[in-house]
Amino acid sequence: MVLSLILLGLAACSGPETLDPSESGGSEGYPVTGSPGGSQGSGYPDPDTPVESPVDGYPGPGIAPGEPHPSDMGPVIPGKLFVDGVSLVMMESFPLQMNATVQGSFSDGCTFFDTYVQEREGNTINIELFALRPAEMMCTEALVSFEQVIPVDINGLQAGTYEVVVNGTVKESFQLDVDNVLPQD
After folding, report:
1. What are phi and psi of 158, to 5 degrees?
2. pTM for this one?
């Protein structure tokens, strides 16, 4: 609610051509590849290319059911986020479950977490986080801290050492002493 009032109170400025989510027939989505493409080779989508949340009807992590998603206020473009650290938390269950708690900063006061893509390549689990921001909104130019919990898919992994890499730069390792597979009856 407060975010809505702040965003509505800020003056609009001219920006890149945008996509109004209400006019599209579906979701553009993000690339799901080992190295998501962007014009600058950073692994992020091109910041001047309008996008929609790749998960239709899902409000997104950190947004309570029934609350509007910030992108419902109009056109959005990819936002910038910076990852400072990650910590892994193994839950006591079998099969084991794990969360990655990612700490970082958004580039301005209007940017918000949108989604993530996770894929496994050998003993490396790559997680890419994506953010959005209103396309025509004037925003504070100050870093805004965030912390996001991401469930890490470790089901079916064999015993061994694994590495979680977030946005291609921040890494954390973990060890499985036994295969993380339910025994067959």
Report:
1. -80, 160
2. 0.62
